[in-house]
Amino acid sequence: MDQKTIRIKDIALKAKVSPGTVDRVIHNRGKVAEKVRIRIQKIIDESNYEPNLMARALGSKKQYRFAALIPDHQVDSYWLAPKTGIEKAVVELKQFGVSVRQFIFNPYDANDFIKKAEELTATRPDGIFLSPIFYHEVLPFLAQWHDTSVPFVLFNTEISDHGPLSYIGQDSYQSGKLAGKLMHYGQSEPCSILIVHIDEKIDNAAHLLKKEEGLRDYFSQQQDAFGITTIELDSSDTESFNNRLAEAVDGIADLRHIFVTTSKAHLVAAELERRQLGDIRIIGYDLVPANLHYLEKGSIGFLINQNPERQGYLGIRQLADFLVFRKAVSKTKFLPLDIITLENLRYYLEEDVKNTAEKLV
């Protein structure tokens, strides 16, 4: 039999039983004579039958309540993309009884994160999707959800040793190595490199540490000695931000490259442009409108696209595959490391992304 088209009706016909009997064997419910069960199971195994999970889900009246714990895009525009991805997935999955309640927190306020995580937990959702950007604060919640058998999917920041159903996002370590390789190309002699972490407490941001580690490891494997300096900056005070950046830049001899580990490379680009330091090359992350502006002007050389909208979409789909369609899901789903330049930018900007950028500028 063709495994792509075989139906319960076909199995019943071959086993000379009713479709209801086959259904009871498949779902291991109700009474079926042992000889009949063995005969039906043999036909199922030989035909490689797989149940139509979509049809089953459509026929079910069960409602699945998911919860998404995500940063506020009005505070940091990067987070609009995963929110959009979540909402696209909900549109597709609504017919299967899936709904997603969003709990929005300030990405620069750990206490707000804790508050929203507590509110989410109190609603007792069937599944949880979140970006665990506050490493220390999220661990008790991960343990609680794991202990109560609530599946959760992480995105943007990988924490693999606390029981997540899945992680969706980039390999942060490899993205750091990629940034190092991009810097190294065309660099004929050793120079100095500045790593800039913006608006993150680095000891509480595992993904940024992995990016830095990746870049440092890349250059440690090279024959030439490159000097690497790290600085953490707070953008809430523009004058202080620019002064500290200027001190770092002026204090590093032979500085040729700056690696910004967050979506805020545009802040560095703006200050370097103001000071007419166009010979320093910048590599950053994400296609947020301000970054695109400086990429198009040539102030930013490369952007590494983290596909945040796809992260949001796939995260909800992973929960649905596991809970609704009863499918096995991969523990880790790394997304491609896309290198964005001025020359290939337009191929990554779909119409809806362009419209979003125009609204936010």
TrEMBL record:
Nucleus is among the record's keywords: no
InterPro entries: HTH_LacI, Lambda_DNA-bd_dom_sf, Peripla_BP_I, SBP_2_dom
Keyword Transcription regulation: yes
Keywords: DNA-binding, Transcription, Transcription regulation
Pfam families per UniProt: LacI, Peripla_BP_4
Superkingdom of the organism of origin: Bacteria
CDD domains: HTH_LacI
Residues annotated as domain HTH lacI-type: 6-60
Protein name in UniProt: LacI family transcriptional regulator
Organism encoding this protein: Dyadobacter fermentans
